[in-house]
Write a structure and sequence with these properties.
This protein has 644 residues and is of the alpha+beta class. It is built from 12 helices and 31 strands. It has a 17-stranded mixed β-sheet that branches. Strands 26-25-24-27 form a 4-stranded antiparallel β-sheet. Strands 18-19 form a two-stranded antiparallel sheet. It is globular.
Amino acid sequence: MTRPTVNRILLALAVFVLPWLAATPLAAQTGDPPTRAVRLSYLNGNVSLQAQGEDQWSQASLNYTLTTGDRLYTDQGSRAELQVGPAAVRMSATTDLTLANLSDQVMQLGLEQGSVHVTVFELQPGNTVEVDTPNGALNLLEAGDYRVDTDPNGTLVTVDRGRLQVSGGDVSQEIGNGQAAELTGTNPIQVQLVQPPGRDDFDNWSEERDRRMSSPRSARYVSRYMPGADDLDDYGRWQPNTEYGPVWYPTGVPAGWAPYRYGHWAWVEPWGWTWVEEEPWGFAPFHYGRWALIGGAWGWVPGPATVVPVYAPALVAFVGGSGFSIGISIGSVQAWFPLGPREPFIPWYHHDDDYLRRVNVTNIRNVTNINNITNITNVTNIHYVNQTVATTVVSTNAFSTGQPVARQMVHVTPQQIARAQIIAHPAVAPTARIATGGTPVARPPVQTARPVMAVRGQPLPTPRAAGGRSLPPTATRTPAPPSRQAEVQPNRQAPPPVITRTTPPPARRIETPPPSRQAEVQPNRQAPPPVTRSLPTARGQVNTQRAPAPFSSAPAPRPLITRTQPPPARIPFSARQPALEQHPGRPLEPQQRQNIRAGRPAGPMQDREVLPHAQPAPRSAPPQQRPAPAPKSQGGGSKKNSRH
């Protein structure tokens, strides 16, 4: 069948597939990875990461991929921002935040201490955004702007725009647009409407970031569900292309720049090997779409803007094989190149056929090879356009330890690249260092143990600090009834009218300006200062500052009240490592994780891999036993070398 005929058939099929994808939620099937991930999109100061299932803390890095179970802490004077779909989560200083759950429909955050600002630009039907605190679960009911501050004395919730529902125990109360509420207690909780506090520097910064994200020029070309689209405006230009449609070209890149060369590899489950680009704009173009070399310049071809994209850890093909490493003096190496337009991405992690189709169709604008995507039978015969012009090679050690690739590149000849074959994945198992997030740092002034997530209505354990000392007691009040309108408490005045931002009420605490992004992680952290909030009072009363007791160097974890039961905790790397080394380079499959969780051996992998594995380079065979010397009368036999 000729290529034009195939293209007509496949494009007709795409006409059917793409509208269906645009209208249908991308609900992951059992065992499939989520179709979205969280981007660490902004760092200022010292920000630490505790990877899912681990005790060790590491230095967070820009454009790192976060998923269920990851935990972040912002040091004094530091800030961070997370992007996921059409939402942004911003962390103020001394904030302890856990990504309790991330699926295609649920984003669940656990806030142990500090302040977060959550902006939801769009909330699709059936999707939920939940913020869990020690004093109640907050379910965001619609798109809007929300701020949550929590400390040992309680939680302050401010709804600048939107609606949310507070729940915990028998309490269920809605907080509406322009309202604020103070939450205290745990079981039961008390909800008291209060005067909205004034703006502070954290609010102003969040508003500035919102303006940047709300209407980027790139929104005309990419889906708003694609994290990082707003960064493309400042670091490149869009140009139309007759073959590929809109193409984005990065500006200010160094000579010799190529995709997937200026960054490092990380291990993020459930995807496994994941690329982390070092440029500020380096997220969307490396987890969505394809790259093309057009007129000597690299351009990024995004997927269709009308379709919710599916995240991929790195849209590359790995190369290797027995003939590739011949002549490379440093020994074992790993190599890859960016996929070009219309080239299929073959995941190296567990997935089903439907996921394979979606991760490709949603990230290719002009679908002309959907047959290869849905029924791959001849992948090794595909002519990859970028293999000869953008293959990057590094030593296995540099790859497996997450070193910056550009400074560790190994020179290879065109002849060596020509001998390379497309392989399933690098045959490299992650080390403990890379599986826990990278460069280790000193533990921040929070408990190593993660906060306990307690489902609403279940008994909560009594929180205790280090050494068995109880936390400062919270005042007990009669629990508020589960109505939408808060009733007047016995010893309180009625809540004051909502105060708009244009008439500033008493201000929250003002933070010191954060240090530069390049600030080094300090080896010895200090305990954060007392959290001081300006608590609203009834009109006509004097507003006083409340300073809770300072956190100790190891404050007690407080149970977080949830509406949604989060998934089980991730299995520690030490328990997964033996099984990972049995099939290096592939994350464990669902049934293997279930076996380990149940105390059984992981067992073998069951997925069929389409692509082959790299074969080791030819080595000298073990010397064969020499035959007995022939009689002299028969002449001397020649000695043959056993190498092959």
